[in-house]
Specification:
Layout lengths: L7 E6 L1 E4 L10 E6 L2 E5 L8 E4 L3 E5 L4 E11 L2 E11 L3 H21 L13 H5 L2 H11 L2 H8 L2 H12 L2 H4 L3 E5 L5 H8 L4 E6 L3 H10 L2 H4 L2 E5 L11 E6 L11 H12 E8 L2 E9 L2 H10 L17 H9 L3 E3 L11 E6 L10 E9 L4 E15 L4 E5 L11 E12 L4 E11 L3 E11 L10 E10 L4 E2 L15 H4 L12 H10 L1
Parallel strand pairs: 9-10, 9-12, 10-11, 12-13, 15-24
Antiparallel strand pairs: 1-3, 2-8, 3-4, 4-5, 6-7, 7-8, 14-16, 14-18, 15-20, 17-21, 18-19, 18-20, 21-22, 22-23
Length: 518
């Protein structure tokens, strides 16, 4: 190996031979890694070299000193064919190992980074395409490419109004600054940034909504000269300059659904200047156990259909257990009464300014609560908030129960087996969120009630209930909070921990968080 630079890398190999009936071995040749290609040729003459596209070739080990390199051709009838191939003979096993290691490293660089084209779009498979199913991405961009869905979000006045206030109240962060709007959608946030005095805004949008954004922005000529819409994924596009501030609305259900937070972090690493601002800056997932007999019975009763033993002469009962578990695998999205919570909430913080993309592949949250009432616990209730840490005003956007309802509502993971608790009893468990290629997460929830009363310190777990849910397939209940009797004796002030925007000064966790990031 003569060069360890990732722009170029050469290996001397004993020989290569073409894959053909009469193929004969060559004299010693040099294998050259160049940009996105692998070339085999004589050390003094590269005019007669054999070249492979790193993106479309594969390397297989045939023995300690011999390997096979083949290049994929186009797909015919959904079956892969190969256009060419060679066998490579190495001089020793160590050189074979080094070559294979270099091949994997170069191939990974090509797949992840791609090559820049004049239009700013990567020519190779992007990081987004590598981790997200094509069918999921197609549906995702189709959904957000429709005006009716953009209207649904824009008419969430808690959402849109909070963004507007966060931007306009912090003009000092935007005036004469370069802004990148990540996943710009209709371009409304880009227009807010321009209103706040941004020097220039780059609105990056991958869906067909980019065309509508151009039209909307052009219809506001006083602002349009300072906004450029770029159609493409943030993982792929190139921008002419770095950003002083990023603005985005990357939050999904339970904060992390749709996996756009990862794109937000990638945009930070690619485009943001050191110590640049991010709006939003921090996200928090809040969790608390809840008791809701109505909801539990509603879900359980859905499976009663499968208990019929004579449905047009057919016994449906063999599928009852599967259907029962299936209904409980759906997280419930709705707005609920905060009096259903049976313990003060705990929080998991994600700092967008420092988090790594890989941190979001799997989020593991230990749970520990103390029940304030004696009741049956039916699962875990979740909501989120985000902080816009402006230089002038720090503003929160919350989706908490009891606060004005947003289009995110709240989310509840309902367990098929409730657990019983008494006042003062400790509840422990774990919420594990594992990302999958359908742009969402598998949720693994476990809740346990520990022994209580005299001798509890020596006691262990009393009862445990677990569930596996798919955040991609929620039950959109969407009902407004029901009126519940106050006999459950929950104390609302114990349950809602100052999520309302007007209570920021009383939110000790929020103040601590602000001190940490300022």
């Amino acid at each position: 190996m003569e060069n360890n630079d990732m722009r170029e890398q050469d290996f001397l190999v004993a020989s290569i031979s073409q894959l053909s009936i009469s193929g004969s071995s060559s004299p010693p040749v040099v294998a050259r890694f160049r940009s996105d290609s692998l070339q085999f040729g004589l050390e003094t003459d590269s005019s007669d070299s054999v070249q492979f596209d790193l993106l479309n070739c594969q390397l297989f080990k045939l023995g300690p000193f011999q390997s096979l390199c083949i290049s994929e051709a186009s797909e015919i009838n959904k079956e892969k064919s190969f256009s060419k191939g060679i066998t490579i003979q190495f001089r020793n096993e160590e050189e074979s190992r080094q070559f294979h290691s270099a091949f994997e490293q170069w191939k990974k660089e090509v797949v992840v980074q791609g090559s820049s084209l004049p239009n700013g779009i990567g020519s190779c498979i992007s990081k987004f395409d590598d981790k997200i199913e094509a069918s999921s991405a197609k549906m995702y961009f189709h959904y957000y490419g429709q005006l009716l869905h953009q209207q649904n979000m824009m008419q969430d006045y808690v959402r849109t109004g909070t963004y507007y206030a966060a931007v306009l109240e912090n003009r000092v962060d935007f005036t004469d600054r370069v802004v990148v709007d990540v996943g710009a959608g209709s371009g409304i946030l880009s227009l807010f940034a321009a209103q706040a005095g941004a020097k220039h805004v780059y609105a990056v949008e991958a869906s067909e909504m980019a065309d509508y954004a151009r039209k909307l922005i052009a219809g506001n000529p006083s602002l349009s000269q300072r906004i450029t819409v770029i159609k493409g994924k943030v993982e792929e596009v190139e921008l002419p300059e770095k950003a002083d501030i990023l603005i985005s609305e990357p939050m999904g259900t339970l904060l992390v659904n749709e996996r756009m937070l990862e794109s937000y972090i990638i945009a930070r690493d690619r485009f943001l200047v050191p110590n640049g601002k991010m709006f939003p800056t921090v996200g928090r997932i809040h969790m608390a156990p809840f008791s809701d007999e109505y909801l539990f019975m509603e879900i359980a009763n859905k499976a009663l259909f499968w208990q019929q033993q004579n449905y047009y002469g057919v016994n449906l009962t063999p599928l009852h257990g599967t259907a029962f578990q299936g209904y409980f695998s759906q997280p419930v999205v709705d707005a609920f009464d905060p009096r259903l919570l049976v313990a003060p909430a705990i929080s998991h913080v994600i700092d967008f300014t420092t988090a790594k993309e890989e941190d979001l592949y799997e989020v593991d949250i230990p749970l520990k609560f103390v029940s304030s009432v004696g009741t049956r616990i039916h699962g875990l209730a979740c909501w989120f908030d985000v902080l816009f840490n402006g230089s002038t005003v720090q503003r929160w956007l919350t989706t908490a129960p009891g606060a004005p309802t947003t289009h995110w509502y709240q989310l509840r993971c309902v367990l098929a087996q409730p657990i019983y608790v008494m006042p003062g009893q400790e509840i422990t468990g774990r919420l594990q969120m594992v990302a999958h290629k359908a742009q969402s997460y598998t949720l693994n929830l476990t809740l346990s009630a520990k022994m209580w009363g005299p001798g509890a310190e020596q006691g262990g777990i009393l009862q445990t209930s677990s569930g596996k849910l798919d955040l991609k397939e929620p039950y959109y209940r969407m009902s407004q909070p029901q009126t519940y009797a106050t006999s459950q004796e929950q104390q609302p002030h114990q349950l809602l921990q100052a999520q309302d925007l007007q209570l920021q000064s009383q939110d000790e966790d929020g103040l601590d968080l602000l001190q940490q990031i300022t």
